[in-house]
Amino acid sequence: MRQRHALIVGGGIAGAMTAMSLHKAGISSTVHEAYRTGADDAGAFLVLFHNGLEALRTVDAHRAVLDVSFPAERVEMLAHTGDSVGVRPVAGGGADDTGTLGPRTLRRATLYRALHDEAIRRGVTIEHGKRLVAADTAPDGRVTARFADGTCAEGDLLVGADGLHSVTRTLIDPGAPAPRHTGQITVCGYTPEVPPEAAPPPGTYRMIQGRRAFLGCTAAPDGEVWWFANTPGGELDREELATGTPAELDRWRDHVLALLSEDASPAAEIVRGSRGIVATNAYDMARTPVWHRASMVVLGDAAHAAAPNAAQGASMAIEDSVVLAKCLRDLPGVPEAFSRFESLRRNRVEAVVERSARLNDRVVPRPAEARKGPGRDDDSGSDWLLDYRIDWDAPVGDDAGARA
Ligand SMILES: Cc1cc2nc3c(=O)[nH]c(=O)nc-3n(C[C@H](O)[C@H](O)[C@H](O)COP(=O)(O)OP(=O)(O)OC[C@H]3O[C@@H](n4cnc5c(N)ncnc54)[C@H](O)[C@@H]3O)c2cc1C
């Protein structure tokens, strides 16, 4: 049988991972990324929990990420007074005797770069400056992608890994819903010199429940403190979010400091010395009714976007990529593989979106929930989210509810 070729639109997390997963499944691909150099640093830094890391391991891509990240082992909750109200291991954190990979923190741009370089090392072609604007499918299923620079590319299928504001999503379904702004602006920053009494201990996420804003922070191995603040606010345009000039940086720092001004916690001390800040609109997308049409499919944020609060969007994109490759490996028809992919993934990813939305309801979390911190819904010990594993060698099942 002729080897199938996939067009992957978007060279972010899902794009590079899909290329590597398809490669392992014996399907060739080309990644078409809109940006000339790489994607921007929206979101600043992120955490990959062990479900995402284990999905990376399925295609042997975990080492590339472990090499450029650092561990998140415990969460300490602080009240607005600065008093500690509890410390517990991060769900899935630390080493365990099964060899499960624990949560890791890294910059989003670093994750992009690591996956991008690993995909290229495996022979994947990534073309930059290719912004998808249209696509047509022929009766035989072949698909032609058309780019803003006037060029086009042909393949047997097209995977839309083009993120939150996906063009592929609307090519598949012109009536597809747009992302919803959650009423929050996430502000992330990097502070090189934090006084020892204010800095979180190594391996610790300190979550500080302020009166008007919530701040989470952790220390990188070089001592720099990485922080994020959930701040209330409506959708802003690119200029309003800009933090590139000293004046813009000062404005955003002052904005966060004003929200922390009533607190006696170390939060303001951490924010005051920050040198770099990234401000992002927080969006989510509860349900995308149509994921695929003919030879085109969406995955990752293009199909389902969770608000940042559950810290799971990247892990979901990684899991999607591996499961889609398995479906294409095991099922002869492309539409059939897409249907199976959707049946294996939809419930899970929509549950994650819903969990994030619940956490997003409050800028200032209620203490009982705040104590649970990232990655845990309850104290039962069972965790449908983090304990999810993909068995690469097992064929995808016949039933709609089958595990990947
Ligand atoms: C503030 C914030 C914090 C977050 N924290 C976490 C966290 O801690 N843990 C976690 O797991 N997730 C986190 N996330 C979510 C995570 O960043 C996303 O879920 C993840 O990036 C989705 O990956 P993706 O590949 O689907 O999309 P993206 O990473 O957005 O990649 C899409 C790619 O497609 C390209 N593209 C777009 N349009 C086109 C086009 N027309 N043609 C060609 N290319 C195109 C883009 O340039 C980009 O490279 C956070 C998000 C935010 C905003």
TrEMBL record:
Residues 6-355 form the FAD-binding domain. Residues 364-379 have a biased composition (Basic and acidic residues). GO terms for molecular function: FAD binding; monooxygenase activity. InterPro entries: FAD-bd, FAD-dep_Monooxygenase_BioMet, FAD/NAD-bd_sf. Pfam families: FAD_binding_3. Transmembrane segments: none annotated. Keywords: Monooxygenase, Oxidoreductase. Coiled coil: none annotated. The keyword Ligase does not apply. Residues 364-383 are annotated as: Disordered. PANTHER family: MONOOXYGENASE, PUTATIVE (AFU_ORTHOLOGUE AFUA_6G14510)-RELATED. This is 2-polyprenyl-6-methoxyphenol hydroxylase.
